[in-house]
Design a protein that fits this description.
Layout: H1 2-44, E1 47-56, E2 62-73, E3 77-79, H2 81-91, H3 94-114, E4 122-125, H4 128-131, H5 136-146, E5 154-158, H6 161-165, H7 167-179, E6 183-189, H8 196-201, E7 206-209, H9 211-215, H10 221-236, E8 240-243, H11 249-257, E9 262-263, E10 272-273, H12 281-289
Parallel strand pairs: 2-4, 4-5, 5-6, 6-7, 7-8, 8-9
Antiparallel strand pairs: 1-2, 1-9, 1-10, 2-3
Helix pairs in contact: 1-2, 3-5
This protein binds ligand C2E and magnesium ion (MG) (3 copies).
The site of one magnesium ion has 2 residues, from strand 6.
């Protein structure tokens, strides 16, 4: 019986090990494929930017849009940025990809303006690897100049990972960005090693509360308490708060009661293709009423 137990432990141990190994192998193979395909995707034009409206929770009017990458590969099908952006970050592809995102966003802004559409500020997500490059700001300024885009039309969303790696270097860059008139948002707040003390010293304008909190805000009193605390502390520090991932009226009502300023989520709108923009009710309303 003792032998039997050892035998079982060994086989089950081995079986687990093999399963894990196989899973890791498949993961690795897919990542390599994503990397290879992504390198070609930029030139092959099967990347796209979509835009998700941001809504003022008091007036329910559109006050901005977030640019989000969409990739539809001939072989892999549609791949989520939640999967390919981390791979782009690890492999350095994020640098040309990030340049493409800025340029594409500016092209769309220009096209909309030429169509006479009122364009609200556009938020672009930026990875730590991009901001760490010394040529980040010169490249960005050259692009803004090329497309004659007013920097105040641009918001930059960063996650706190950048602050942990190089808080001092980052602070200087963020101050420069802010001085040029661009707005700064800290994304996915509450998930990483976020600390409100970062916000005290850095020139952020917006705190974006991560979707996990909003998703559970009704059912889970801890998420409710954290959301409430983030909102009041951010306000005390002079920052506006954006809630991500609002999907129902109960969440909206609670966030309004907590004084949350801005919301994003499927309740209002998912991210829209650039050419459907002018027909979107939110953008139509914005154009009828004008920017605030
Ligand atoms: P993020 O910046 O936090 O963007 C919010 C994500 O939540 C987007 O996912 C958006 O489509 C999704 N979302 C919005 N409202 C709802 C909702 O009501 N319910 C649910 N379930 N989801 C909602 P997406 O587009 O898949 O992007 C995932 C992440 O990929 C982004 O998170 C961002 O970190 C990254 N990403 C996307 N585009 C870019 C980019 O151009 N550059 C960089 N560096 N990262 C990007
Ligand atoms: Mg974002
Ligand atoms: Mg986020
Ligand atoms: Mg995110």
């Amino acid at each position: 019986n003792a032998d039997m137990a050892v035998y079982q432990a060994k086989t089950s141990g081995r079986a687990t090990y093999h399963f894990y190994d196989g899973e890791m192998g498949r993961r690795f193979a897919r990542n390599v494929r994503i990397e290879t395909r992504l390198r070609q995707a930029i030139s092959k034009e099967n990347l796209e930017l979509h835009f998700q409206p941001k809504v003022d929770l008091v007036t329910e009017r559109c006050v901005g849009m977030e640019a989000l990458l969409r990739w539809n590969d001939e072989e892999l099908g549609s791949v989520s940025p939640a999967e390919f952006v981390p791979i782009a970050e690890q492999t350095g592809i994020i640098i040309p990809l990030g340049d493409w995102v800025f340029e594409q966003a500016f092209k769309h802004i220009l096209e909309w303006q030429e169509l006479g559409i009122i364009v609200p500020p556009i938020a672009v997500n930026c990875s730590a690897a991009q901001l760490k490059r010394v040529d980040f700001l010169p490249k960005l300024l050259a692009l803004l100049d090329k497309y004659k885009i007013d920097p105040s039309l641009l918001e930059i969303e960063v996650t706190e990972s950048i602050l942990i790696e190089d808080a001092v270097g980052c602070a200087e860059l963020l101050r420069q960005i802010s001085r040029l008139g661009m707005k700064l948002a800290i994304d996915d707040f509450g998930t990483g090693y976020s600390s409100l003390s970062y916000l005290k010293d850095l020139p952020f304008h917006y705190v974006k509360i991560d979707q996990v909190f909003i998703r559970n805000i009704i059912e889970d009193t801890k998420h409710e308490a954290l959301t409430h605390a983030i909102i009041s502390m951010s306000h005390d520090l002079g920052l506006k708060v954006i809630a991500e991932g609002i999907t129902n009226a109960d969440q909206l009502q609670m966030l309004k009661a907590f004084g949350c300023d801005i919301g994003q989520g499927y309740l209002f709108s998912k991210a829209l293709g650039a050419n459907t923009m002018s027909r979107d009710p939110m953008i139509v309303a914005l154009n009828e009423q004008g920017l605030e």
